[in-house]
Write a structure and sequence with these properties.
The protein has 494 residues and is of the alpha/beta class. Helices cover 50% and strands 8% of the residues. The strands form 2 sheets. Strands 3-2-1-4-5 form a 5-stranded mixed beta sheet.
């Protein structure tokens, strides 16, 4: 095959130290520390020159990859184009310190000399002025020679720079903080200068932003916005639960869950236990039918019977005040639940129109919620990830090594894409309910003394290798294929 990269299905599903209990509590020996290999670092800082330990053989091709992006609105492969190689031709580096109402830009040349700086407003006129400012330095036809270094991956400023054709390289803010002087001086101009210095020193280690397709961008925004609405719903449900416990605890026993239309309409119709006890079975039945309950007749009888059994009740003052709060919370939850349902329909429609939907639908227990999220966060650009180790790093499933002197230990990765990490964590746990090998792997980790979180994260790390293999090869997931690959590997390892 020469140097051409090919991925056979599950060809990279090999056992690693992560799969054998080295993810937490893993005291690394000096011998292991000095073994050849590389690990992914947390941020795109200046690369260390000494050898590092690989916590997983599957990470051996990372070549000191850095994870600098906090959100994956735009992501690209490492900058290996000829124009970023120092010495190919002259480069300029502009650090852009962004803010809500203005942006500071400072340009340095290849030798680190400051050329000029500019502050522009966050407005159409300011964006145009910034574009003109940069073109005056490199010209309209040589934009690839101007590297724009900035501490964000999304927003109108990023959109404007990309639309204008400027190369954009995001960096983690912590990277710039480490370059500050001992005096602690900090201004917007200093921040812009430090960003430019970071680009000049570490451009080969930074990832250039490349925009997602329009469909993928829409799916990603919809799923993330729905997650925010679900968090809002959870917060309101928790407040409603606390409110009902204070004066109306029997209401928590009448329905399976609070965040459903039948429960909320019942509470809205009967805001106090006294009013609920005064209702007849037929009146309760009408409320359930209005809410389109799936089994109103049987449930109405059970509710009526429970209300007339002994239960705790608050005094009149507590009931009067808390019932008012309860009605406010219900009035917020009702439209929120409807809007979340509308998001489900829109996401499902968009997801099913994507050519990769069958791949993610085939994942066990991915369901209506997790499959679109995994597709949205991973994307559809097969050139984006060099191998599965970069996806593991971006998803926060692979640990990072912390080493100082004789002390060495693997830690949870902090710099990652949080929505992708959340989706992978939820998905990995769901698979323990249906996949025997996943359940066995999870229980083995727990038996080794790992916590629930660490065990699920280790399982998610295995799943990332599987997902990457089937995604790259355009195949759907099949349990039998994976189990066969496991058996083949076990015989080879033996």
């Amino acid at each position: 095959m020469g140097k051409k990269r090919r991925f056979s299905l599950y060809s990279k599903l090999r056992t690693s130290p992560l799969d054998t209990g080295l993810e937490q509590g893993y005291t690394c020996s000096v011998k292991l520390l000095n073994a050849p290999g590389k690990v992914s670092l947390l941020h795109p800082a200046r690369p260390m020159k000494k050898a590092r330990t690989s916590l997983a053989p599957s990470l051996r091709g990372t070549d000191d990859e850095r994870v600098a992006l906090r959100a994956p609105q735009y992501k690209g492969p490492r900058a290996q184009e000829p124009y970023v190689q120092r010495g190919a031709f002259l480069m300029w580096y502009v650090g852009i310190d962004w803010a809500n109402d203005h942006h500071d830009a400072l340009v340095i040349d290849e030798k680190g000399r400051q050329l000029t700086s500019l502050r522009v407003d966050h407005s159409p006129q300011g964006m145009s002025k910034l574009n003109t400012f940069l073109e005056q330095i490199v010209g309209a036809e040589s934009k690839e020679q101007m590297a724009c270094i900035i501490e964000t991956t999304h927003g109108l400023l990023i959109a404007h720079l990309l639309e204008a054709g400027w190369p954009v390289y995001p960096v983690n803010p912590r990277t710039v903080d480490r370059r500050r002087s001992a005096s602690g001086a900090k201004t917007d101009t200093i921040d812009a200068y430090l960003l430019a210095k970071t680009g000049r020193a570490d451009l080969a280690d930074l990832h250039r932003l490349t925009p997602d397709s329009e469909k993928m961008t829409e799916l990603k925004l919809l799923t993330r916005d729905q997650d925010a609405l679900i968090h809002m719903q959870t917060r309101l449900v928790n407040q409603l639960t606390a409110c009902l416990k204070a004066y109306y605890p029997v209401a928590l026993e009448l329905f399976a869950k609070l965040h459903q239309k039948s429960t909320l309409l019942f509470l809205q119709t009967y805001p106090s236990p006294q009013e609920a006890m005064a209702a007849s079975v037929e009146q309760i039945l009408d409320v359930l039918r209005q809410a389109r309950h799936s089994n109103p007749t049987a449930v109405a009888s059970k509710i009526f019977a429970r209300l007339h059994q002994p239960h705790l009740q608050a005094d009149a003052v507590m009931t009067r005040t808390k019932s008012r709060l309860m009605l406010v919370l219900v009035s917020q939850l009702l439209p929120l639940i409807e809007q979340i349902a509308q998001y489900d329909k829109e996401i499902d429609t968009l997801f099913l129109t994507h050519e990769d939907h069958e791949i993610f639908e085939s994942l066990p227990r991915a369901g209506q919620r997790l499959a679109p999220r995994l597709l949205a966060e991973i994307g559809d650009d097969r050139t984006r990830y060099q191998d599965e180790s970069l996806l593991q790093a971006l998803g926060g499933t692979s640990p990072v090594l912390y080493q100082s002197g004789m002390y060495s230990k693997a830690h949870r990765r902090l710099g990652c894409i949080k929505p992708l990490r959340n989706a992978l964590h939820q998905f990995a746990w769901q698979t323990t309910q249906s996949e025997p090998w996943a359940r066995s792997y999870y229980h083995r980790k727990r038996a080794e003394g790992k916590s629930y979180t660490v065990a699920v994260r280790a399982l998610a790390n295995v799943w990332v290798r599987i997902i990457f293999a089937i995604w790259f090869a355009h195949h759907t997931y099949e349990t039998a294929t994976f189990e066969h690959a496991q058996q083949q590997h076990a015989r080879t390892a033996a």
